[in-house]
Recover the amino acids of this structure.
């Protein structure tokens, strides 16, 4: 009995070891599966992060390439006034590399004087309000420039202002051209006033007329009083000269140029004045007239001089006729005396 009992015990122990070993195998198998699964997930996560970083880097490089090609200065400045992004324009203007600009305070980049000049606008942008302005700025490295600048706040989802985007364009050349144009207009205006003349532009398609201030002045009109229509122009012309002016305008549309003299009545004084109008017609691709540009000159003094000369010629002719008649009368009476033109 004892032997059988001992044999049963040994068998039981053997079965337990087998079962125990089987349990360990199953446990290790499960653990191995879990470890393999976690390693796979970690590898997937790593690949996703790697791809995301690569994509972000590619987008950053693309953004850098695009902004570097733009004819403007583009930057991102954080709430602490430090540069976090800039394009090539900033590097060229301030003679600093991208690495030197990164993280540098705006005061260091712009210089103390310019920083103080721009501070109110920077603070406005960091308060959440977009800012646009044009001004002249004396940069240290780039020299004095006229710039057009736009500061756009960077607002997070919770409303916090994290910084602002800056877009700055050099408009110095445009300002220079505008100044040259303004100077040329001033010289032209002075020349027109001295020469008692004024310019006009007739939009043939819209049937509108644009007059210079000098031309308004010739008509005795204040800015805003001339309505700019063809009818308003005709109302300024002496009634006896309207048809001649219209006929000249119609002929100019066909021939390309026109020249006419007519009388006007000044609106302010009622005085009659003479104008000479000269215009050039411009055509579209189909040779349809689209506009006429020209000038009107006050020729009243010339017309008065011409009239005075005609009157002098008339009186001279009358005087000569009178002398001839007197000479014939004296001759018919047998008198051959000399008659002085002064008698």
């Amino acid at each position: 009995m004892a032997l059988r009992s001992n044999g049963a015990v040994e068998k039981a122990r053997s079965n337990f070891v087998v079962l125990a070993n089987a349990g360990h195998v199953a446990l290790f198998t499960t653990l191995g599966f879990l470890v393999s699964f976690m390693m796979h997930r970690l590898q997937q996560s790593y690949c996703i992060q790697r791809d995301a970083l690569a994509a972000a880097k590619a987008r950053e490089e693309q953004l850098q390439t695009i902004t570097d090609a733009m004819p403007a200065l583009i930057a991102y400045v954080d709430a602490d006034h430090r540069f976090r992004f800039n394009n090539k324009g900033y590097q060229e203007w301030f003679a600093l590399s991208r690495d030197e600009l990164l993280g540098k305070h705006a005061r260091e980049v712009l210089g103390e004087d310019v920083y103080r000049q721009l501070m109110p606008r920077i603070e406005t942008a960091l308060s959440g309000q977009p800012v646009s302005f044009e001004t002249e700025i004396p940069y240290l490295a780039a020299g004095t420039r006229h710039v057009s600048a736009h500061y756009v706040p960077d607002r997070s989802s919770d409303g916090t202002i994290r910084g602002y985007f800056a877009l700055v364009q050099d408009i110095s050349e445009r300002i220079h051209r505008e100044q040259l144009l303004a100077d040329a207009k001033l010289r032209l205006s002075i020349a027109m006033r001295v020469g008692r003349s004024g310019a006009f532009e007739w939009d043939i398609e819209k049937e509108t007329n644009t007059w210079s201030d000098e031309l308004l002045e010739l008509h005795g009109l204040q800015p805003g009083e001339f309505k700019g229509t063809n009818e308003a122009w005709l109302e300024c012309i002496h009634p006896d000269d309207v048809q001649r002016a219209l006929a000249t305008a119609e002929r100019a549309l066909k021939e390309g140029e026109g020249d006419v003299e007519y009388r006007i009545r000044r609106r302010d004084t009622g005085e009659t004045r003479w104008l000479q109008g000269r215009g050039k017609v411009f055509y579209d691709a189909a040779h349809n007239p689209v506009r006429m540009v020209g000038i009107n000159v006050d020729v009243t003094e010339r017309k008065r001089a011409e009239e005075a000369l005609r009157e002098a010629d008339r009186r001279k002719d009358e005087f000569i006729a009178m002398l001839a008649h007197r000479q014939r009368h004296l001759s018919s009476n047998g008198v051959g005396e000399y008659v002085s033109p002064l008698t």
Summary: The beta strands are 73-78, 83-86, 131-139, 143-155, 161-170, 197-203, 208-211, 257-265, 272-283, 289-298. The chain has ten helices and ten strands.
